[in-house]
């Protein structure tokens, strides 16, 4: 199982790695959802879906089914 | 060459960048709203005088994230920009961006630049730069983006004059693209260039990838020789997007600095509350509650005033003008007809005010986010909330607002159920009937019973919409790719000017659109009610005199008796009497029947129709419509016509019936089939009849 | 008498307007998005 946006916890940041171009809408790409850009999970809607993200500076909400398609590398924040 | 005195300016930009505010700042109230030919996309043109006496037509194009269109609204943008022969083809394009979202907004800018139109980059919301710790190197950005930059704040109103001065120098603005995107597949684009040497490469690319009309070139010709699989095209579009972002990132690295230590952020704090799993919903329902209570409480004052003024105006004209047919037409047909239009203005204005405040403030997107999971259970999308809420103003723009729902099944269901929400045309009908049959008392001292009834009717509308969506979701077998992307814009204080212009526009559209129809119907109704065939109409005086030969009536009673004898035997009376058997089980008399029939053109005609019928029927002109309705009794039983049972039955009938020609037309347009609007008409009205029948039979 | 003539002219205008609006919609529809509630913008 790959790490995807769906695996992020609230407040966690990650780098977008890869996704299947046929299932991720072009509109999301235009919002900045492209490999190499950062994504942060800002808020989870009540009932767990959709997810409110900060992708490369754009604030967007997407559903979990789309979030599951976007592979990421989680940035481990070193708090100390 | 003499410089042109009339130039076209196109305003282009992503949604939520304050494009409309810029438009309003440039044009003030000097604007026209219409539609693009053949489609119902709003077309806003404004006029503005630039320095040195140049007149500008400013076209406010629909907001779009890029030139890769995914809706007909966005198609409009591409079609205009590709068609040099269009009389609105811009001499200069203003790409409006938000300083806080510059990176994303510049994507569209780089695409517009590829079309080789003189382009000015308008960076809006510059007043927020300090607050967010943003600084820009304007000369650097102008050089690398090959453009001129106007730093403005449409909110604070600065930079507008400078922008106007910049516009008149449009001939000196570079039309060179700022990056070469054809490197994403050099061979492909080289052969494309060879095949069509006279065409702009990016235009060809748009024709290949988009579903738009392109003059002078046969799209099939281009497509057949340069076709690629859908997947390959999308891959290229992705490459193109990446290429553009790389360029933008490189430019902004030098040109834009953000000092995050200064940046303040209240968005996340607000979001934590407004999208909270408990508070989020509580606040949402509180807002709805306040809206509906205030609409009812506040608008009754001007409405009563308008109602009374028109009643006395009728009486005045009847007394002052020379007696005759025309005077009667004016005092009984035209004046009550106009009154029946103007009486809606307060409620419509309030409703549009609230809706535009919710949208302007950025709160509407939070509602979408909050409601998506719940709405999906009913086969709807979170985005269906916007049409359902704006359906409380009017189903027509609400159905148009479904265009940004990506999934066809979710969109279709939203279109089909939106007419159940309580539109503003139902409001006057509700208001007058509630006023007649629900006591004006207060519960717990502050909750107005009439207000609560109104709110229940709204909830009933929403409830029915959602319930029928659930059923449709089970019945309809449509498969489609589903996705959902919604931008969560910054919170903004709504601008008084934007809200005000919006309210004025919508109210004007109502008065001059629907108003004309209501007035025309009122005039026709007056004739139908004032003329009749045969003896029983023409010899009314004689018949009444003969029937009361033994108990002579006094003058007043005699006049009233003649008037109602005439009305019953007029053309409209005959029509009403014919359908009476069908509607009397619902508790309605033939007069209400006429009002219901005429409401199938548009619901709001109901009040006007009753006003006309009662004005013709009565001899005393100085009584308001409401008082006339309250005084109406059934001649057979002596019972009031508008009693609790028939009132509730009427309310339910109007809540469910599909009585709006305009909505049927827009459903046909948006679904491209007669099947759906006919289904709405038959099923909704049938359901309304059954529910009203049951309610009356139980309550009477 | 003159009152009657003017009144019937007004009726004629009203009917012509309604017929145009509801039966010749195809041609007009590009400018007007509907007849019903009118607040179509």
UniProtKB/TrEMBL annotation, chain A:
Coiled coil: none annotated. Residues 3-74 form the Ferrous iron transporter FeoA-like domain. Keywords: Iron. GO terms for molecular function: transition metal ion binding. The keyword Cell membrane does not apply. SUPFAM superfamilies: C-terminal domain of transcriptional repressors. InterPro entries: Fe-transptr_FeoA-like (IPR007167), FeoA (IPR052713), FeoA_core_dom (IPR038157), Transcriptional_repressor_C (IPR008988). The keyword Membrane does not apply. It comes from the Bacteria. Pfam families: FeoA (PF04023). This is Ferrous iron transport protein A. It comes from Flavobacterium weaverense. The lineage of its organism: Bacteria, Pseudomonadati, Bacteroidota, Flavobacteriia, Flavobacteriales.
TrEMBL record, chain B:
It is a multi-pass membrane protein. GO terms for molecular function: ferrous iron transmembrane transporter activity; GTP binding; metal ion binding. One of its GO terms (cellular component) is plasma membrane. Probable transporter of a GTP-driven Fe(2+) uptake system. Keywords: Cell membrane, GTP-binding, Ion transport, Iron, Iron transport, Magnesium, Membrane, Metal-binding, Nucleotide-binding, Transmembrane, Transmembrane helix, Transport. Gene3D superfamilies: P-loop containing nucleotide triphosphate hydrolases (3.40.50.300). GTP binds at residues 13-20, 38-42, 60-63, 124-127. It comes from the Bacteria. It is found in: Cell inner membrane; Cell membrane. Belongs to the TRAFAC class TrmE-Era-EngA-EngB-Septin-like GTPase superfamily. FeoB GTPase (TC 9.A.8) family. Residues 6-173 form the FeoB-type G domain. Mg(2+) binds at residues 24, 27-28. This is Ferrous iron transport protein B. The chain crosses the membrane at residues 278-296, 308-330, 337-358, 378-400, 412-438, 450-472, 509-529, 641-666, 678-699. NCBIfam families: feoB. It comes from Flavobacterium weaverense. Its main location: membrane. PANTHER family: FE(2+) TRANSPORTER FEOB, FERROUS IRON TRANSPORT PROTEIN B. The keyword Transferase does not apply.
TrEMBL record, chain C:
The chain crosses the membrane at residues 6-23. Keywords: Membrane, Transmembrane, Transmembrane helix. It holds the Pfam family FeoB_associated. The keyword Transmembrane applies. This is Attachment p12 family protein.
């Amino acid at each position: 199982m790959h790490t995807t946006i769906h695996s992020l916890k609230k407040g966690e940041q990650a780098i977008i790695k890869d996704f299947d171009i046929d299932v991720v809408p072009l509109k999301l790409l235009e919002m900045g959802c492209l490999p190499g850009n950062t994504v942060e999970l800002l808020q989870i809607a009540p009932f767990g879906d959709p997810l409110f993200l900060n992708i490369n500076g754009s604030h967007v909400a997407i559903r979990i089914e789309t979030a599951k398609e976007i592979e990421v590398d989680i940035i481990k924040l070193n708090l100390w | 060459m003499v410089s042109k005195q009339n130039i076209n300016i196109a305003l282009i930009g992503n949604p939520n960048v304050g494009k409309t505010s810029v438009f309003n700042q440039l044009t003030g109230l000097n604007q026209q709203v219409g539609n693009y030919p053949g489609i119902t996309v709003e077309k806003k043109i404004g006029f503005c005088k630039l320095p040195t006496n140049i007149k500008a037509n400013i076209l406010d194009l629909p907001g779009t994230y890029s030139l890769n269109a995914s809706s007909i609204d966005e198609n409009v943008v591409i079609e205009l920009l590709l068609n040099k022969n269009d009389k609105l083809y811009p001499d200069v394009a203003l790409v409006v961006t938000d300083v806080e979202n510059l990176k994303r907004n510049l994507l569209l800018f780089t695409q517009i630049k590829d079309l080789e139109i003189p382009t000015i980059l308008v960076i809006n919301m510059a007043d927020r730069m300090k607050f967010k710790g943003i600084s820009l190197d304007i000369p650097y950005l102008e050089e690398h983006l090959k453009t001129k930059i106007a730093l403005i704040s449409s909110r604070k109103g600065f930079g507008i004059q400078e922008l106007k001065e910049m516009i008149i120098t449009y001939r000196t603005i570079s039309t060179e693209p700022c990056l070469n995107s054809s490197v994403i597949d050099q061979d492909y684009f080289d052969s494309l260039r060879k095949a069509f040497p006279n065409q702009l490469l990016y235009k060809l690319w748009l024709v290949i990838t988009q579903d738009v009309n392109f003059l002078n070139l046969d799209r099939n010709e281009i497509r057949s020789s340069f076709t690629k699989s859908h997947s390959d095209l999308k891959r290229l579009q992705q490459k193109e997007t990446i290429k553009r972002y790389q360029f933008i990132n490189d430019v902004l690295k030098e040109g834009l600095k953000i000092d995050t230590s200064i940046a303040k952020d209240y968005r996340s704090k607000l979001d934590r509350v407004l999208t909270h799993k408990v508070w989020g919903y509580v606040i949402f329902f509180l807002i709805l509650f306040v809206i509906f209570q205030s609409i009812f409480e506040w608008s009754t004052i001007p409405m009563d005033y308008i109602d009374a003024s028109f009643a006395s105006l009728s009486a005045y004209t009847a007394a002052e003008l020379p007696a005759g047919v025309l005077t009667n037409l004016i005092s009984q047909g035209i004046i009550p007809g106009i009154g029946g239009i103007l009486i809606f203005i307060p409620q419509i204005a309030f409703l549009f005010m609230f809706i535009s405040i919710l949208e302007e403030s950025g709160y509407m997107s939070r509602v979408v986010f909050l409601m998506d999971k719940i709405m999906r259970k009913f086969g709807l999308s979170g985005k269906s909330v916007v049409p359902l809420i704006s359906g409380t103003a009017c189903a027509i723009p609400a159905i148009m607002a479904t265009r940004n729902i990506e999934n066809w099944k979710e969109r279709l269901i939203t279109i089909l159920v939106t007419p159940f929400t309580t539109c503003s045309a139902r409001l006057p009908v509700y208001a007058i009937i509630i006023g007649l049959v629900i006591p004006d008392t207060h519960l717990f001292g502050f909750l107005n019973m009439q207000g609560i009834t109104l709110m229940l009717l709204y909830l009933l509308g929403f409830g029915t919409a959602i319930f029928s969506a659930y059923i449709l979701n089970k019945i309809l077998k449509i498969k489609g790719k589903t996705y959902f992307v919604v931008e969560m814009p910054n919170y903004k204080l709504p601008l008084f000017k934007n809200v005000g212009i919006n309210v004025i526009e919508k109210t004007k559209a109502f008065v001059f659109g629907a108003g004309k129809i209501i007035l025309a119907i009122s005039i026709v109704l007056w004739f139908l009610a004032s003329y009749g065939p045969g003896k029983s109409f023409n010899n009314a005086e004689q018949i009444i005199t003969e029937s009361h030969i033994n108990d002579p009536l006094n003058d007043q009673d005699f006049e009233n008796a003649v008037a109602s004898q005439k009305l019953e035997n007029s053309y409209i009376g005959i029509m009403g009497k014919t359908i009476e058997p069908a509607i009397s089980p619902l508790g309605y008399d033939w007069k209400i029947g006429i009002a219901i029939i005429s409401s199938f053109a548009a619901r709001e005609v109901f009040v006007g129709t009753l006003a006309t019928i009662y004005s013709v029927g009565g001899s005393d002109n100085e009584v308001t419509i409401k008082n006339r309705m309250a005084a109406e009794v059934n001649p057979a039983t002596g019972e009031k016509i508008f009693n609790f049972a028939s009132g509730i039955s009427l309310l339910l009938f109007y809540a469910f019936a599909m009585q709006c020609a305009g909505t049927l037309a827009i459903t046909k347009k948006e679904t491209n089939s007669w099947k759906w609007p006919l289904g709405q008409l038959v099923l909704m009205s049938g359901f309304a009849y059954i529910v009203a029948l049951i309610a009356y039979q139980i309550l009477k | 008498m003159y009152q009657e003539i003017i009144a019937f002219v007004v009726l004629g205008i009203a009917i012509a307007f309604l017929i145009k609006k509801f039966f010749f919609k195809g041609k007009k529809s590009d400018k007007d998005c509907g007849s019903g509630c009118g607040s179509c913008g």
